Amino acid sequence: MAGRKAAAKPEQTALVIDEATYNASMTPTPRVPLAPATPHASESAADSATESATDSATESADRAGELGMAAPVWIDRLRQWATELGFAALGVSDVDLSEAGPGLDQWLAQGCHGEMEYMARHREARTEPARLVPGTIRAVMVALDYAPDDPAWLERAWSTLADHERAYVSRYALGRDYHKVVRARLASLATRLQDEIGAFGWRAFCDSAPVMEVELARRAGLGWRGKHTLLLARNGGSMRFIGTLYTDLPLPLDAPVDEHCGRCTACLAACPTRAIVAPYRLDARRCIAYLTIELKGAIPIEFREAIGNRIYGCDDCQLACPWNKYAALASLPDFAARQRLDEVTLVELFAWNQAQFDSRFEGSAIRRIGHERWLRNIAVALGNAPSSDEVIAALRSREHDALPMVAEHVAWALARHGQTIRNERKT
User: Fold this and answer.
1) Does residue 266 fall inside a structural domain?
2) What pLDDT tens digit does each residue of the chain (427 aa) get?
């Protein structure tokens, strides 16, 4: 983050999403008047979009000239409106990310992105925002707190991790799908400004497109990059979603803030799988968030025991971070726990069928991994749970599951309890 060269650290986040959602997000938002273009566009289409974007940028420059000294006033109003929408902070960054490219290239070359091939496929769009949305010259960055609305949330999180009969779901995924919540509020923010100054180009993102959110947020003064690679703020820790509004408005820039990690390495020591291989460097292939969300196939056996009862994501590096003692609690009810996910048992969740999974996770980010990966993850956690008749019975109920990946993870879990697979009964 601030005080360190971005080129030395690739852009990454522990909040990973599935590729289908990622690719779907490349579709231009209907509200946005900027010229639509994606990394998949043909050269002729891209040329046409660039010409259109150039006209849009010229119009924006003319508008900025008309606003003149009033530009800072509009920033103040944006911050006020952002607060009213529930955002904890707002800042503006330029979009020259050339210094971040070499670090990203090195990370990709080392294969640290695992199966996330889209990280490499959209590399240019990631480091050159105008390739994704032609005409973009600024990024309005916002932060939205999501720590559970409970003063004892940290203690409760550690308590759940220590109770291997219960399921641990990353705190960001307990409630509504944050992608939708943040993007909708960003759209409201852009629309409100548009109502005041007239039409301008914009497009909203939240962890769903090739956008270097942490680096842009750092440049916008929202915080610094922690050694766990996530954004940190003195008044909010890292339990925050980051939203991005690409725009063709030449708004005044904010300055980065100093970093305050010092000699602390608590996040590195806390990682169960040692995925933070060095300060500011994450190997996603070892990260529990990647293994339980992004990985489509079998979870490598070497990591299964370390996963413990974490069935969707992992927060250990954040829970251990001293700055999260000061994390602001969620201001929106959207992120309150649903389906008792902050206290439910593994056995209970393992009993959900496909229909129950789909209906109960309607509007949740968890639904994207699908029922098969959900069962895979819980099977591993049950293998790490204390042996009991209830746990063994739950595993036995799926020892001959029709999904081979689930059956394999169940067999591993049963073996952990000294059990073997029984012959399937003939009917």
Assistant:
1) no
2) 333 332 333 343 333 333 343 344 333 343 343 432 222 222 233 333 333 434 444 555 555 554 445 667 889 999 999 999 999 999 999 999 999 999 999 999 999 999 999 999 989 999 999 999 999 999 999 999 999 999 999 999 999 999 999 999 999 999 999 999 999 999 999 999 999 999 999 999 999 899 999 999 999 999 999 999 999 999 999 999 999 999 999 999 999 999 999 999 999 999 999 999 999 999 999 999 999 999 999 999 999 999 999 999 999 999 999 999 999 999 999 999 999 999 999 999 999 999 999 999 999 999 999 999 999 999 999 999 999 999 999 999 999 999 999 999 999 999 999 999 887 754 4
Residues acting as catalytic residues: 207
- The parent domain of residue 29 ranges over 6-147+178-247
In a domain, 272, yes or no: no
Is 186 contained in some domain?
A: yes
CA 357 – CA 270 distance, rounded (Å): 31
Other Cβ atoms within 10 Å of 27 Cβ, number: 10
Phi/psi class of residue 191: alpha, beta or left (left: φ > 0; alpha: ψ in -120 to 50)?
A: alpha
Q: Tokens standing for 201?
A: 């180009």
Q: Which residues pair with 140 in a beta bridge?
A: 92, 245
Residues 82 and 219 in one domain: yes
> With contact defined as beta carbons under 8 Å apart, do 273 and 292 qualify?
no
Judgement on whether residues 353 and 217 belong to the same structural domain of the protein? no
At 56, which amino acid appears? Answer: S
Structural domain includes residue 267: no
Whether the model clears a pTM of 0.70, i.e. scores above it, the answer is yes
